[in-house]
Amino acid sequence: MSKLTEAISFRLTQDLSKSAAITYDNMRSYYEHYGVGWQESKILEQIVDLDNWDILCDGQLIGALRLSFDGDSCWLRDLQIIKDFQNKGIGGAVLAEAKRRVEESGAYRLMLKVFKISPAYRLYDKFGFTLTNEDDRFYYMELDVIKKSEKL
């Protein structure tokens, strides 16, 4: 673990508007590429009922983690890290935290969808997510956090 990833912590999101702005800044090029007309206000509408966490580095807000639980499964709705902190190992640390939260909840599977043109696909693949489906825009991936047989 690097010194930077050791400095990572999480707290319940304190400002959903700021969190939505991080998502919009990171995702704008994908929205434009696919002709999705989302604005920050639309993102805010979509995240208000999720399990929202601020990602901090030495107390500074650097990203957002969003989860939604559905029975035995959890959806990773967002993993956003501001550009200055990307490609420094933080994504893996955030995924480990998401996995921990899924285990703690009793769910056994972590699922996500990622734009096909997103470099984040490589992070998810490296972390152990498997491709389960795809369409023209997205890869759908999942990670067995706890084997279903172990849960029984």
TrEMBL record:
One of its GO terms (molecular function) is acyltransferase activity, transferring groups other than amino-acyl groups. It holds the Pfam family Acetyltransf_1. Keywords: Transferase. InterPro entries: Acyl_CoA_acyltransferase, GNAT_dom. Transmembrane segments: none annotated. Residues 8-146 form the N-acetyltransferase domain. This is GCN5 family acetyltransferase.
